[in-house]
Structures are given as C-alpha cells and as structure tokens.
Amino acid sequence: MGIQPVKRVKISEQVFEQLKQMLIEGEWTQGQKLPSENELAQGFGVSRVTVRQALQKLTVLGLIETRLGEGSFVCELRPGVQVNGMIPAAYLGENSLSQVLEFRQVMDVKTAELAAQRATEQDLAELERIYQEMVDSKDDIRRFAQADLDFHLYLARATHNPLILEANSIVRDVLSATMDQIVTKAGNRAGLYYHRKLLDAVSRHDGQECGRVMQEHVDHNYELLSPQTGRKGEEE
C-alpha cells in the first residue's frame, strides 16, 4: 500500500466530530442546554471562534439549535423536521427513479409487516381515508400520487417506531419528487389493487400477508419502471 499523505484536520473539525459523537451517544438529552461557548472552549483547549464554527455545523445538521440570548440546545426528535434538508433530491444521480425504487424495496416490506401487527383502530381509519382519496383522485395524477405517497408514509407511522418514521420522513421530498413519475408510467390500476390488499391485511393484523403483498407491489414497480427493463407502464 505504501506511505499515504497525512491529512491535516482543522481543529474546528476535530471539535465538531467530538461534539457530534457525544450527542449521538446521549451525553446531553433532547432539549438539554449544552455548556456555554466559554466552557466548551476551556474544555477543548481551543478558542471560542473554533467552538462556534463547530456548533454552526451541528446546527446545520439539525442536531442542535441556538436560541438568542439563551445558548445552544439539543434538538428534540420531531420526525421529518430537523434533517429533511440533508437528503435533497439533488443528491440522487441520473437513475433517481431506480434509486427510489431500491429504497422502497429495502424499507417498505418490513414496514408493512410491522404496521399490520401494530396498527390501531385510528391508524386503520386513517389508512382507509387515504385509500379513499386514491380512489376519488384516480383520474388526477398529481392528487393520486400524493395520496399514494401518504399511504406509504402512514404505514410507517403505524409501526409506532420513531426511527422507521424518521427514515421515511427524511426522504419524503425525494419520494414525492419521483411519485408523479411512478404513477405516470405505471398507471393507477395496480396502485389501487395493491393498496386495497395491503389495507385488508392491515385490518386483519396479518403482518406476514401484508409484507408479502408489499414485496409483490414494490417488485412489480421495480420490474416495470427500472431503466434496465425498459418496459412501459399500463395506464387505466
């Protein structure tokens, strides 16, 4: 391998990495105030300017928030609020549709299983409402696509697992940007068919069947829409 050049890491970057790791490990709890810039500067043995640069990076990531005259606080976990902007659609490459389909192949199946097992009556009622919105808007691509996305995002909510909900919320804008393409190319017939079967499985709390239907649904979309297949969707 040979000798590799040594990278000079800025002091502020080292402070940032340490603070980020401390936040991840729960050194400070959600909503808790961090030590002042002076205290952090003394602890790290660096200047206040260096600490301020590190705190600014943490703020951009949505890990902390600075309140004028009060100091810096650990952000509270509110799904989709603090890190949504970290994964904009611009991060995707030329095959953005394939990348979204792959994400859904990874995430949606287990999400569907857990949602069916854990959904409350309120969850089921909301999924029914969203499905009806899909039915009512089947001739309006934009409305139908939005209702389709809402159905999948609410399945994530019905798992009652904040990490699953957060993961879906982070990429909501990316999913939304491609959903119109999916509906335009795949049509609405398959969407209504699979979402009805998903809803029926959730109503029976049949996690295994719900996961199986979701697997079939996302595989169907991937086969239909992936550039590798070159197949054309069927409109109703």
Question: How would you sum up this structure, described in words?
Answer:
With 236 residues, the protein is mainly α. It folds into 2 domains: 11-74, Arc Repressor Mutant, subunit A (Orthogonal Bundle), CATH 1.10.10.10; 84-225, GntR ligand-binding domain-like (Four Helix Bundle (Hemerythrin (Met), subunit A), Up-down Bundle). 64% of the residues lie in helices and 3% in strands. The protein contains 10 helices and 2 strands; from the N terminus they run H-H-H-E-E-H-H-H-H-H-H-H. It has a two-stranded antiparallel sheet with strand order 1-2. The longest helix is centred in the middle third of the chain and has 23 residues, at 96-118. The termini are far apart. Residues 79-91 and 229-236 have low confidence and may be disordered.
- Give the terminus-to-terminus CA distance: 59 Å
The tally of structural domains comes to 2
Number of strands: 2
Going by helix content, strand content and strand pairing, the class is: mainly alpha
The percent of residues in helical segments reads 55-70%
CATH superfamily of the largest domain: GntR ligand-binding domain-like
Which geometry do the CA atoms define?
A: elongated
- Major pleated sheet: 2 strands, antiparallel
CATH architecture type of the largest domain: Up-down Bundle
Give the helix tally.
Answer: 10
